[in-house]
Write a structure and sequence with these properties.
Blueprint: E1 2-11, E2 14-20, E3 23-27, E4 32-37, E5 41-47, E6 50-54, H1 56-62, H2 67-97, H3 105-114, E7 133-137, E8 140-146, E9 150-155, E10 160-164, E11 167-174, E12 177-186
Antiparallel strand pairs: 1-12, 2-11, 3-10, 4-9, 5-8, 6-7
């Protein structure tokens, strides 16, 4: 016996997507800067140091004196020695004048003149300490500043932006279909 058979062959529809990616470009230009630096001004006022050394007294103690100073000292010394000699001679005269007191004035004067007083020794430093006068005035420095400053001008540049949007195209990649086949089958069957 022959049984008919139906065969179905179905194909589903398929869609396809064609995608174009978006493109984005951003360019940022750096800012434009203009900088002007004004130099600082500095003024320095300086009063130089001063060193004064007065060594006249030291030279005087060493015997190096000017002629007017030597003359004045010699005159003072001579006057002093002259006055001392006059005083001594007057004292001796007074002693000799007092002979009536039965004193031996001549022996006393001879003894006094024959035995000079002992020498007085002392250690001295020539020139003496402090005989050189030193006066020092340090340097004085005055500094005046005037700041210059800076002028800065900045111009901001906007970014350059290009954007191309993406696209998606939908298309039918495969159409749906249905195929139907009728097939006859022979079947031998015993009853």
């Amino acid at each position: 016996m022959q049984l008919p058979q139906i065969r179905l062959h179905q194909t589903y529809a398929q869609i396809g997507l064609q995608i174009t990616q978006p493109v984005q470009e951003i360019h940022q230009q750096p800012a434009d800067l203009s900088i002007q630096q004004h130099p600082a001004e500095m003024v320095i006022e300086r009063k130089p140091s001063q060193l004064e050394i007065d060594q006249d007294e030291a030279w005087s103690q060493l015997g190096f004196k000017s002629l007017p100073e030597l003359s004045a000292e010699m005159a003072d010394y001579s006057r002093q020695v002259g006055l001392e000699a006059i005083a001594e001679i007057a004292a001796e005269g007074d002693q000799l004048a007092a002979i009536e007191n039965k004193t031996d004035a001549i022996a006393a004067i001879s003894a006094e003149k024959g035995n000079p007083p002992p020498a007085d020794f002392n250690i001295t430093f020539i020139p003496s300490y402090g005989s050189v006068k030193i006066h020092y005035t340090p340097t004085e420095v005055y500094i005046h500043w005037k700041l210059g400053g800076a002028e800065i001008e900045a111009k901001q540049n906007k970014p350059i932006h290009h954007y191309q949007p993406g696209k998606t195209a939908v298309y039918l990649r495969q159409r749906q279909s249905l195929e139907i086949d009728f097939v006859g089958i022979n079947v031998n069957q015993k009853l």
